[in-house]
Specification:
Elements: H1 4-15, H2 17-54, E1 60-68, H3 71-76, E2 81-87, E3 89-95, E4 103-110, E5 123-127, E6 137-141, H4 142-148, E7 155-160, E8 163-174, E9 194-200, H5 201-207, E10 213-221, H6 227-238, E11 247-248, H7 253-294, H8 296-304, H9 309-346, H10 361-387, H11 391-395, H12 407-410, H13 419-430, H14 432-470, E12 475-483, H15 485-492, E13 497-512, E14 515-524, E15 548-551, H16 552-558, E16 565-570, E17 577-586, E18 594-597, H17 598-605, E19 611-618, H18 623-631, E20 636-641, H19 642-696, H20 701-738, H21 751-776
Helix pairs in contact: 1-9, 2-7, 2-9, 2-10, 2-19, 7-10, 7-14, 7-19, 7-20, 9-10, 13-20, 14-19, 14-20, 14-21, 19-20, 19-21, 20-21
């Protein structure tokens, strides 16, 4: 048998089903975001952990020029080293019939004996590993194979050590070392133009003149071993072999990119849901406060009939619990559906043997706890007021509001207003806190609408800044090895080249205090115009003759400012160790970098006109001729085509942020409508007797509607500027959460974004007003003639 109070609860909820659904939907939006992000974190972390463990992801990596295999014995005996594996690796250009420009391949050697790799083992999707007696068989990266329609049995041409070699694909595979596949120095994948390739050590070593040697080494640390002493000893041993400095897994490009994504999701799992739940808590408070005010007599009757204060309090808390449970269920379902959908988006960036969505059921429990906690905290004051109300006092109607002239009437402004508008102003002034809280809820809803548009504005600005203002070259070409100016001369005189600017970069470790980063210090000509360095306003920065320019993010990471001196430990050539002042900060949105005048960099390295590559501007009429010639250039290792990079950005980052932006827009629209509708329904419930009285004394239906709608319209208009200001702050906070060392979003909000937010909130308001207006027409005018006491 149902308890009488529970029957009352069901009856009350039936009468308020619209408001309950509105509040539950707002709560569900926040919980869905939290469940989705936490489940995606669990999916990525568990998949990464299993993949790294099963296929032995290395702990430490190092690249060098050339060292004999006997050196491996010295590394293997270092304290803390569990497993060590030497390799040969190199970048090559690939010639595919379907591509006009050369693609880039990064070839890594497989063990000479044909056995399995000790570390960074390849997961074979299809086919087999190369046979030891086959010199030109390779395993091709899955992303590249899929993008270009390649399969086992097909062939491709690679330029290895200046010679064109035809490689036969015997298998398609993946590696934990390249979950995120991108060319060195790039922060976006280009599956059509970059691939990792695995080849037998003997075949690759002979082709690259590395027989009996290695230029790449990975190792695994013993459990509990400290990595710093191992890295120091490795650097000491490999220094004379041209090592670029050993580094940990967390600094490895692919692992760092995956770590950054998980870090972004972690921030979003807290920040965004918190805003939704704050709105929901406000709405629950407003709904329950209205119920308590309207049920004063019922509270008195319940207590007069013997119900204790605790029973009355629990009765009203059950109302809140139902909303919390309903919001959690809807949020859980929506979070699961959204998370499962976004997992497919991650396959554009991260390649695992399998990536299946894993629901974080602990997040469901946390969501229920948070939703109930937010709801209960939002109504504790209201429930306390209900239970402490003496029956005799509760039996009397609530004292009428203060009917003194409003401030607008006292200063004489109301003579310009209609009677209906004056009534709306009086009601707002006589319930100031209610007006403040209603406007606050509307402001939060407006602010949420700003975020999706801000994300779109940021992407548009990034495209203009990065690919129009900053990068003016058509192609960037990097050589297999740093060499004399002849390499630059050869590139400069390729057919179709209009302008060429040299590049000289060196690997270095920048230290400031106890912080450090291993990066490339790039030397460019101070008159360079193809790849410009810009400040935060988009203005070109003049390259100083001495000193460093560095990206704003790098300065933030190491804690340095303009004027500070940083220690530059060069990790190649003569390996100088200098202290160089920071002369300026560069605005960029991908990676971290430092720059010097190319002449100053060459003096630091005590070398002549050495170059690594060049930025090239082309005559597009001779594009195909240039690309054909470039494919046959033996020293070209990496070719970056700007239009291909832009297309890759649109296909990956642009598309993924577009999906997230649409998701945020839908959620924000639900919140906007929910808040406005809930506010309108509360206002109608509280004022129904007054509005019906106005109808009785002769006000027309339109005038009565105008009183209520006018009051709400004033609150909406008051909330809009504060909402836009809150939206700007929210966008700043959320998009700052997206910013990592690998990729960042500029904070840009166009006036059109504010306009769209205003239009959506006003549209939600008009729809809510229309629904409420229909209810005004059904007010009970006979009931108001009856006495209330």
């Amino acid at each position: 048998m149902i308890d009488p109070l529970d029957r009352k609860l069901l009856r009350d909820m039936g009468k308020m089903k619209g408001q309950i659904i509105a509040v539950s939907l707002v709560m569900a939006c926040g919980l869905a975001m939290m469940i989705m992000t936490r489940s995606l974190i669990l999916t990525l972390e568990s998949t990464r952990s299993a993949y790294y463990q099963k296929y032995a992801m290395a702990d430490v990596f190092a690249n060098l020029k050339r060292a004999p295999l006997s050196v491996i014995e010295q590394i293997a005996t270092l304290p803390g080293v569990a497993t060590v594996e030497p390799r040969v690796s190199l970048d090559v250009t690939l010639d595919l019939p379907g591509l006009s420009e050369p693609a880039t391949g990064h070839i890594i050697s497989l063990p000479e004996d044909g056995g399995p790799q000790k570390l960074n083992r390849v997961f074979l999707r299809t086919g087999r590993f190369p046979r030891s007696d086959e010199r030109r068989e390779v395993v091709l990266g899955e992303s590249f194979a899929n993008a270009n329609g390649l399969k086992p049995g097909d062939s491709l041409v690679a330029v290895i050590n200046g010679r064109r070699e035809t490689l036969k694909i015997c298998g398609i595979g993946l590696s934990p070392e390249y979950v995120f596949e991108a060319r060195a120095g790039e922060t976006l994948p280009d599956h059509k133009r970059f691939s990792v390739i695995w080849m037998n050590y003997r075949a690759l070593a002979v082709a690259y003149n590395m027989d009996g040697a290695f230029n790449d080494v990975v190792l695994d640390l013993a459990p509990g071993a400290s990595p710093e002493p191992v890295i120091e000893e490795m650097d000491r041993i490999l220094a004379k072999y041209g090592a670029g400095g050993a580094y940990l897994r967390k600094e490895q490009a692919s692992a760092q990119r995956l770590d950054d994504e998980i870090r972004v999701l972690t921030s979003l799992s807290v920040a965004y849901p918190l805003v939704f739940l704050s709105v929901a808590a406000f709405m629950v408070n407003a709904v329950l406060a209205r119920i308590v005010r309207l049920q004063r007599e019922q509270i008195a009757q319940m207590k007069a009939l013997g119900y204790s204060s605790r029973q009355v309090g629990v009765h009203y808390l059950k109302f809140v619990l139902v909303i919390g449970i309903l919001g959690t269920v809807m949020g859980g379902i929506a979070g699961r559906l959204m998370g499962a959908g976004l997992v497919d988006m991650y396959t554009m960036f991260f390649r695992f043997p399998s990536l299946a969505f894993r629901m974080d059921y602990s997040a469901m429990g946390l969501a229920l706890f948070i939703s109930l906690g937010a709801s209960v905290l939002g109504v504790l004051t209201v429930v306390w007021q209900a239970v402490k109300l003496p029956p005799a006092e509760a039996m009397r109607p609530e004292p009428p509001a203060d009917f003194e002239p409003s401030i607008f009437e006292r200063i004489g402004l109301t003579r310009f207003f209609s009677p209906v508008f004056r009534m709306a102003l009086r009601n707002i002034e006589r319930r100031p806190w209610q007006a403040v809280f209603t406007s606050a809820g509307l402001a939060l809803a407006t602010g949420l609408m700003v975020l999706p548009g801000a994300m779109s504005d940021s992407i548009d600005y990034l495209l203009t800044f990065q690919w129009n203002s900053q990068q003016r070259q058509d192609v960037a070409v990097f050589l297999t090895e740093p060499g004399s100016g002849r390499g630059f001369h050869d590139l400069e005189h390729l057919p179709g080249v209009i302008r060429a600017e040299p590049i000289r970069s060196v690997q270095a470790r920048l230290k400031f205090g106890h912080r450090h980063r291993k990066i490339a210090v790039t030397g460019i000509d101070k008159s360079a115009n193809l790849n410009r360095l810009l400040d935060d306003k988009g203005n070109p920065i003049t390259m100083p003759e001495e000193g460093l320019l560095m990206s704003e993010m790098l300065a933030k990471v190491i804690g340095a400012r303009i004027g500070d001196e940083v220690e530059v430990q060069v990790l190649e050539g003569r390996r100088p160790n200098l202290r160089i002042p920071i002369r300026g900060l560069v605005t960029d949105f991908a990676g971290v970098a430092a720059y010097m005048d190319i002449s100053a960099l060459r003096r630091m390295m005590k070398e002549g006109d050495t170059v690594n590559g060049a930025y090239l501007s082309l005559d597009h009429k001779r594009w195909d001729e240039f690309m054909r010639e470039l494919k046959d250039t033996p020293r070209a290792a990496i070719v970056m085509v700007k239009r291909d990079q832009l297309a890759a950005f649109r296909e990956t980052t642009g598309k993924s942020i577009g999906i997230i932006r649409k998701l945020y827009f839908v959620l924000a629209t639900i919140v906007a409508f929910g808040v406005v509708y809930n506010s309108a329904r509360i206002a109608l419930s509280e004022r129904s007797r007054e509005l019906a009285t106005l109808r009785v004394v002769g006000f027309s239906l339109a005038e009565v509607r105008g009183v209520l709608v006018g009051e709400l319209a004033i609150l909406v208009l008051l909330a809009l500027p504060f909402g836009l200001l809150f939206g700007k702050g929210l966008a700043l906070f959320i998009m700052s959460s997206f910013s990592t060392e690998t990729v960042r979003l500029p904070i840009v909000i166009q006036s059109s974004t504010y306009s769209i937010a205003i239009i959506v909130v006003l549209t939600a308001s008009v729809l809510s007003f229309a629904l409420v207006s229909r209810m005004i027409a059904k007010l009970d005018m006979v009931g108001v003639l009856k006495a209330r006491d």
